[in-house]
Known about the structure:
The protein is α+β, with helices and mostly antiparallel strands. It has helices at about 10-20, 20-30, 70, 90-95, 95-105, 110-125, 190-205, 205-225, 260-270, 285-290; strands spanning about 35-40, 40-45, 50-60, 60-65, 85, 130-140, 150-160, 170-180, 240-250, 300-305, 325-330.
Amino acid sequence: MENKKITRGINKEFAEKFIKSELYQLYKKHNDELIIGVRNNSLNLYYNCDSIAKISCINNSLRCEIDRYYTDGIHYKINDKNKKYEISQNEICDKYDKIKENSNKKQKNEKKAQSNLFIKNNSNELSNWFCIDIEYVKSFNDKNEKNESNFSARFDIIAISKKEISKEEGHVAALIELKYGNSSIGGNSGIYKHANDFFKFKDKNYFEDHLKGEIFDIIESQKDIGINIPFNELNKESLLTYKFYFIILNNNSETENFSTPKQTMAGYLFRKKKWGCKRLSKKYCVENDFGDITKKENIVNATFLFSKWTLDNLSIEDIIDGDYDEIITPM
């Protein structure tokens, strides 16, 4: 056991046991559809961005936990003691097809597209980026500010530029939110909430104080479990900046009378109609509370990547610099 403090990763003993495990062989066999997420003292095995195995190392042996839905097809309430249970590696491997079948039944196009983008990008040696994490969540407790105690930094995907973008920017961490279709723009997890979270993330300096160190813990653990990391000289001095990105897929409308996701998003972003917007949101307006996040001089800004690709024909192989219909960068 190493003495190094790990903020988000696993120790080398854990890594050595994992690469000798049945689950590692399952991952190697199906790495065109599986993703390994590095957590603090555990690993998550993802299919469709569903965690189909939480893997930990306890008393020098690997243990796995799974949501019963993926093996039994039964939905349990979040606080139900039967919802998750310990499962053997052999059982996960034996039931893998059933686990996939139950995951596919959930019909979550956004999560399936998220997984698709991650895997295709990392399979493309010519991509300018490498995805290091998916479904990233970090909760922060600020004892001095009671209202901030429940804040969690959440990103669908974190990617790192393989090369330095410039001497001033260095390597860039892309903090990505994915939206799929019109229905994903508003509501409790829509564009307004993300702008609010981005503002808190920047205001509290969480990148320098927390995320940068975690990125290197993740990368170190990925190397230990045999993932080919394509960074030549990445270090904390060269990882200088981070940028927010929105990827919007299925940017289509059903009929001429309906809005595209881009037009709908504009209704939440701006005070006045832009981007062909047909209706402004009466309840939420990002610009009123956080400024125009499409402007470079704003405290928080983001790049918007729009594509008409759907899950059925998604062919983006570079997650940032890929085949998008329109890219709006902060100006």
